[in-house]
Amino acid sequence: MVAFTRVLMSWRLIGLGLVGASCLVVLVACGGGGGGGSGGSASLSTPAAAALTPATAPAVSTLRLAMPRQGITANELAVIVAEGDALSESIAAEYQAARGIPAANMIRVKLGTSADSISAADFALLKADIDAKLPAGVQATVLTWTTPYRVTGTCSMSITSALALGYDAKYCGSGCVE
Question: Which residue has the higher pLDDT, 61 or 2?
């Protein structure tokens, strides 16, 4: 009897104002809980609830509440690897193993990694290569190299921003030209 009281009291506390057998069945099926007395005996506050006892309560079944997924899955993530760069290759292999990234989502590109920046023209070719190799359903990319880290042309922009937004001066700050 105490469990039934606690379920009804927890719903009444949040102001839903639901009483009666149908409310109780849903709450019991969802687990209910919270609020209520400290154990022992408790009184039921409504006539409809007072008529329910474990013997007279309707049968319940387990209900599942589907919450929206948070984050992305390994299938929705691509790892971009600078082919031939030992650090990039090592980081990519470790990341793939740790996160379970599918082999199809490991994108290998030819990229010089000795300079801090890449020209806007070379970046356009790199982006086209990456876009052509990305599997359907990929929502995010991980870059596994340390340089180049910026794209230069009419302005200077981080390579991660340029890949996500496209290289465009409208995304550059006023003090970011090289």
Answer: 61
